[in-house]
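quick one, 244 residues, struct below
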Amino acid sequence: MGLVGMIIAAVLVAALLAIIVVKFLPLKLRWIASIILMAITVLLGYKIWFGIMEPIKFGKDKVVKYAKVVDKLKIIRDAEVKYYEVTGKYTKDKAGLIKFIDTAKLELTETKTIVERVNKGGGIFIDEEKRVTEITGHEPVLKYFKNRDYKNMFKVPGLDNKEFEVEVGTVEKVQGLVVPTFLVKTHKKDILKGMNNSLVKQELEAIATDQIRGEYVSVGSLDEVTTGGNWPPSYDKKDGAEKE
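---
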């Protein structure tokens, strides 16, 4: 029964009891009715308080749980992006991606403009500018994951033996141009297990811009070319504060 239903039921019971007291209950027994009415008032007050506070507590608790999941998804996202920079594709090989962080190196490049003297024929030479990119060195991918728990990045926080689902695919961005995509996700209902069922059901249907939309907490997409997550900006504020 919802909060409104409980209030209506309590009011009806109180009204019925008042009618019984006035019409049928002897004067010497009316103190019993007073105690009952007081008990109903206390119970109603508690139900109203609980009905107001439970969604508030649920909201705070879910944010704490989601934040830990989002942090892991960001690590996986960054690993996939670095993998793409080196290989030109994404991967669903979890162990392989961890090994990639441990062993792979990124090329350091420098792009500059040079002037070349071009023979146009007939003894005519002109200077043309050309942009060239040169490899200037290499750096370990591991550099970008310092102090980040990438070894356990696929484990969903708070859930025993539960790992994120990882999928890869492709999208034809324009005709003839096929672009790799990836999606990493985990179901909200597993993260929120043990919490109020009614509120969890509402959470799975969330569509507001300040909420994590849908049934999953995820990053990437198989249908769009994106490396963004489905969480609102509030989950990135901590990162921004740490960088300042």
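Residues 187 and 216 are 4 Å apart (CA to CA).
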